[in-house]
Write a structure and sequence with these properties.
about 475 residues, 2 domains, two-stranded antiparallel sheet, disordered C terminus
């Protein structure tokens, strides 16, 4: 394939990935949460401490928020601003997959289109999350490590550092663990020598650790929180309420990789049969070992295996898939790009219609409350913090001022000039809270299971200052 043809196919992929970016609003809870934290970073110019609706939020390192922030700074607080960085990450992963396919003697274009037409990849690479950027870092590590020109250099450690800032030590499960497994399987101890590069680990420490060291020094209890709650409890317990069967990831990946699943399995088997081929064994180990590791975890989500997706495409390309599969893959990507337009905001789990309704009436964020569930999409689209009524939020590291701003009661006294207040969420609970404030409630808009209530005075009165 000529350079011109590669550029044409790259442009086509970019267009197909960009088309659905605005089809549905940001999806709660995960995507909207990441986008809102990045928006608050841009708005406050504080890129050190992540905040969600004004409350300090340290559940994850800041790498993904930093990656999303430029898109929001350039394109604004909308779907394009939040998703263009995700699409750029997808295109980077596709380019790295082409490079790895070339190194392994596969057809680069075929591997790229197989990956783009993998449902797991296409869907998740249109949702803002840490997993998409972690996948890019993992692909960068393997692309460097599989390349004899870069394996002994510093690029693998730069990729490891990026993954560590994005999602912490879990990056080692999809990078170093497969390399160790592949070296053992292929009996190639020399392949592990680059992992002993002291300069590389020093660079890793310089790039990956400063944020952790600064925040741990400033916030007592953070080290224990990250190590115990965010790592150990997530793996060893079901405290995060995301449990699943031991075969969860294998079953999910088998379905998500359709229609390429049989070729992936065949490619893994071929890679493992060639005991002396470290590179082929790495691709197989990249798929198998992380899935085995995560299968023992008490917390299971589809996004956890997204970093494995490039290996699926490389495995399928090795599994005897025909060249005509490229045309089938192209057709699938076109279908995938069209489907989001048929879904709609409410079914997707987006509060975009609610935010549009409020913004059309020039409602400021200070007059909007959430009741019951928390929707990060509302502060994102309203571009400001909203009040919280009976909402469960992690306030472990929030300051008293942050808590007072977020968990504020509905005004008990009515000031006509302030205009009505709006409450979105659990209708029955919201009605009770509105009644307790001496206000009446009427449904302004329904969004799926939830309702937007307009809180107005039962008997309007005008108060003057000092009365």
């Amino acid at each position: 394939m000529t350079t011109k043809e590669r550029l044409r196919q790259g442009a086509l992929l970019a267009i197909l990935f960009l088309i659905p970016c605005g089809a549905v609003g940001l999806v709660d809870p995960t995507e909207a949460r990441y986008a809102e934290i990045a928006r608050e970073m841009v708005a406050t110019r504080d890129f050190l401490i992540p905040r969600l609706d004004g409350l300090t939020h340290l559940a994850k390192p800041p790498g993904a928020y930093w990656a999303l922030a430029p898109g929001i700074a350039v394109f604004g607080a909308n779907e394009w601003g939040a998703r263009i960085p995700v699409v750029l990450a997808a295109l980077l992963v596709l380019a790295l997959t082409a490079h790895m396919a070339r190194l392994l003697g596969r057809e680069p274009s075929l591997a790229v289109w197989i990956l783009a037409a993998t449902p797991l990849f296409f869907v998740l690479f249109h949702l803002a999350s840490a997993d998409v950027f972690l996948a890019a870092a993992v692909a960068g590590f393997h692309a460097a490590y599989l390349d004899p020109r870069h394996r002994r250099g510093l690029l693998p450690f730069v990729a490891l550092a990026a993954g560590f800032v994005i999602k912490g030590p879990v990056v080692l499960v999809t990078t170093v663990l497969p390399v160790l497994g592949a070296a053992a399987w292929s009996k190639r101890g020399d392949a592990l020598v680059p992992l002993g590069n002291l300069r590389g680990w020093l660079l890793f420490a310089v790039l990956a650790l400063p944020w952790y060291l600064v925040l741990v020094g400033r916030m007592p209890g953070l080290f224990d929180h990250l190590l115990r709650h965010e790592m150990w409890d997530r793996f060893a317990t079901t405290a995060h309420h995301r449990s699943g069967a031991p075969y969860y990831f294998f079953a999910m990946l088998a379905l998500a990789a359709l229609p390429w699943t049989p070729f992936v399995v065949r490619g893994i088997a071929r890679g493992l049969r060639e005991r002396g081929d470290f590179e082929s064994a790495t691709v197989a180990a990249w798929i198998v070992l992380p899935l085995v590791f995560f299968s023992f975890s008490g917390s299971k989500l589809p996004g956890y295996v997204l970093p494995v997706a490039p290996a699926l495409a490389l495995g399928a390309a090795r599994g005897g898939i025909g060249a005509r599969a490229r045309l089938a893959a192209m057709a699938l990507v076109v279908v995938f790009a069209a489907v989001p337009f048929l879904v709609g905001d409410i079914r997707a789990g987006s509060v975009r219609p609610i935010a549009r309704y409020l913004k059309a009436r020039n409602v400021p964020p200070s007059q909007v409350y959430e009741c019951g569930p928390f929707f990060a999409g509302l502060p994102f689209y309203m571009e400001g913090t909203v009040g919280l009524l009976d909402v469960q939020r992690d306030t472990l590291f929030a300051t008293p001022a942050e808590r007072a701003q977020a968990f504020r009661a509905l005004p008990a006294e009515w000031v006509l000039s302030a205009g009505p207040f709006w409450v979105y969420g659990d209708e029955a609970l919201a009605r009770r809270r509105i009644a307790e404030a001496g206000l009446s409630a009427e449904v302004a808009l329904r969004g799926g299971r939830w309702a937007l209530l307009k809180a107005a005075p039962t008997i309007p009165r005008l108060y003057r200052k000092g009365t």
